[in-house]
Amino acid sequence: MAVLSEIEEDELDEEPGEVIESAPPQKLGEERQLNSNSPIKKKLLKRGHGWETPNFNDQVTVHYVGTLLDGTKLGSTRDSDCPVTFTLGQGEVYAGLDDGIVTMKKGEVALFTLPTVESEGIPQDSNSVAQFEVELVSWITVVDVCKDGGIIKKIMEKGKGNDRPGDLDEVLVKYQVSLVDGTVVAETPEGGVEFYLKDGHFLPRLPKVIMTMTRGEKAELIVQPQYAFGEKGREAGSGFNSVPPDSVLHVNIELVSFKPVINVIGDSTVIKKILKEGEGTFTANEGANVTVSYTAMLEDGTVFEKRGIGETQPLKFVTDEEQVITGLDRAVATMKKGERAIISIHPDYAFGNVEVRQELAMVPPGSKVVYDIEMMDFIKEKAPWELNNNEKIEVAGRKKEEGNLLFKSGKYQQAAKKYDKAADFVIEDGSFGDDEQKLAKSLRISCWLNGAACCLKLNEFPGAIKLCTQVLDVEFHNVKALYRRAQAYVETGDFLLADVDIKKALEVDPQNREVKVLKMKLKQLQANSDKKDAKLYENMFASKSKQRLKVEKEEGEVVKLETDNVGDSAAPSDGGLIIDSR
C-alpha cells in the first residue's frame, strides 16, 4: 500500500508552469490566472451562454470599461452605450486584452487585471496594473479559407449541426456576387442553384468555400483576384455580368442544403445520393435481412421494375447473398432505416453486357441503371460477441455449408467469404468449454482448408499459403494443409518449400494418391527448370567465350597496326627494343 500511495502522489505532482487541462469550471467571483505563463488575471462576474468561445481573427463586439487602480479611465463604451467591434489578435483596444477575450463565452462579463503598457500612454511601472471589465456581446467567426488571406469568410449566421458537404455532394446554394463598388455581377434565382461540388460553379474556389459550411449557414466572402478571375477578368455570358481584371469580389452566400453522395465501392461505379437521411447511426451490414421499396430505371428514365410502389410488394432479401445485382447489394448495405437514396450503377455491377428482360421493360446490354430506393426495415446479422457458444457453433456450421454450396456452383469468391465469416464465429478466444472447443477447432480448421481451396481456384496463392499455415500451426501433421500449401508453392515457383511439404505429407500418409501425383509434377517441373538453368548458363559461357575471342582478335589487330606504323617510321639503331619495350 505504501508503494501505491507513493505512485499516486507522484502522478499528482505538477511540473512548474504545467497547465492542468481538467481544471474545474471557474466560479462566480473567483479570480484566476489565464495560465501559468500569463501575467493576466480573470475574475468571472457573470456566466455566459453555451460552450463556444471566439478565436483570434474573429470579429468580436464588446462593452468594456478600462481603469487604473487609482481610478484613471483608460476608455469606456458604457458612456455612449455603444459597443465596439474589432478583430481579435490585433491589440486594437489594449495590448494583452485579446488574450482574455478569447476565453469568454457569449454574454459573459469578466474583470481582467493586466500590466500597464507604456505604448498606451501610461508611464511603465512594474507595480502598475490596468483593469478592464468586459462584456462579450457577440462575435463573428472569421475563416481564412486558403490560409493565405486569399478568401476570407465571415460567418454571419451559423448553420445547423456539424455536417459539411464533401466534394462529391450535390449542394443547393444562394449567392450574390458584387464588386467593391457594389456592382452586382452574379446572383442566383430566388430558389438558389443546385450543382455537384466536383463540377464547380462560377468561381473556381467556390466549392472549397462551400465545403467549410454547414446546412443553413450564411456567410460573407472577400475573394482576392488570384482566387476570382485574376488579371484577365471575365467576360459577360451564361447569365453573368462581366468582371473587370484584378477585381476583388464580395460574396454573400447561403448553403441552403446538400445531398450527401457516397462512392460505395470506391471507383465511382456505384454512386449513392442520399435524398432523405435515415434514422439513428446503424446501417444494414453484410448478411442483414432487408426490406426495400424502389423504382428501377434506365438512364433515359425508362422504368423496368417497381417494388413496394403502388400495389407491388416490397422486396425482401439478405445482403451479400447474390440475391440482387451486385451494385444494389453493396449500396443497400450502407443504408439506414428510413433512408431514401438514388443509386446509380455501372453495367459491370448491374446486368453486364447481356440483355435482360425485367418486369416492365427490357434492359439493353451494357446499360447503366438507376434505383430510387427507400430502406423500409432491416434486421442486422448478429455479431459473434452477441451469441452464446452454442449459437456461435451453429452459425459457423451453417455458413460453412452455405460456402460449400457456393463452391460447388463455382462461386469461389463468395464461398471464400462464407468460410472466412464462419471461422470468425469460432475463433479461439478462451470462451469455449472442452467439448465446445473440439467442435469449434474442427470447424475453424475445416473453414481454413476450404478457404485455401478457394484461393487455389482463384489463383490467390499467397492467401492459400497463409490459410494452410494457420492450420499447420494448430495441426502440424494435417495432410490436406501440407498438400494445398505445396500446391501453392509449386504455382509460385518455390519448389524447395513445396518439396518439404510433400515429404512431410507422405510421411503421414505414404499412400496418398493426390500427394504422389503432385510429387511427380514437381519432379517434372524441377527437371524442366534445371534444363532451362543449364541452357541459360551454357549461353552465358558461350557469350563470354565469343567476347573473349573477339577481344583477343581486336588486340592482335591493334598490335599488328602498331607494328606496321613503326616500320613506316624512321627506325633508330636499336629499333627492335622499341617493340620489346611495348
Automatic annotation (TrEMBL):
It comes from the Eukaryota. This is Uncharacterized protein. It comes from Trifolium pratense (Red clover). The lineage of its organism: Eukaryota, Viridiplantae, Streptophyta, Embryophyta, Tracheophyta.
